[in-house]
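Subject: design request, 170 residues
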């Protein structure tokens, strides 16, 4: 779902920047000495970079989703950068256009955060057979599966094993 939304959004934004470039060229206006051709070229380049960046993020999300594996560090960094960009776009949209335009980047931001949380790497678990790790007690309380020792056979520091109780300290 997230990959499809990012791909569609990348195509729409690239087309929007292309339309903006056409409008700039037809206006024949200069911006502080910069000609309309340069501004149109910059708009087309920005649209292409934004569209390709969103397509790359869509490809990374699709690859992680189809492989059903946790995201790597580089993929997480790319998706976090994409999420931050959408957060900034959402703020700009609500400030410049209104709450209706805010919904699209905010929804994509939510999908990106959900994707990042859904594909988190699992916590490393301590292996019971690893050297140096304490034995894991089985159902009978013993340290190893084949031992016949009970929990009362294990000495506890500071507690005497005699039936009369601990000996007085002189």
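Subject: RE: design request

Done. Sequence follows.
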């Amino acid at each position: 779902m997230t990959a499809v939304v990012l791909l569609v959004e990348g195509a729409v934004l690239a087309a929007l920047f292309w339309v903006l470039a056409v409008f700039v060229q037809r206006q024949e206006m200069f911006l502080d000495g910069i000609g309309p051709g340069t501004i149109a070229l910059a708009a087309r380049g920005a649209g292409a970079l934004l569209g390709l960046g969103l397509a790359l993020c869509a490809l990374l999300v699709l690859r992680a989703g189809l492989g059903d594996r946790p995201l790597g560090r580089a993929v997480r960094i790319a998706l976090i950068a994409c999420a931050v960009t959408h957060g900034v776009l959402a703020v700009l949209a609500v400030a410049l256009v209104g709450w209706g335009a805010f919904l699209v980047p905010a929804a994509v931001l939510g999908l990106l955060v959900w994707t990042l949380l859904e594909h988190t790497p699992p916590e490393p678990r301590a292996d019971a057979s690893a050297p140096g790790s304490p034995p894991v007690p089985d159902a009978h309380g013993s340290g190893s599966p084949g031992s016949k020792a009970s929990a009362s056979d294990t000495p506890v520091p500071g507690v005497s094993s005699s039936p009369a109780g601990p000996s007085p300290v002189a």
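DSSP finds four helices and no strands in the chain.
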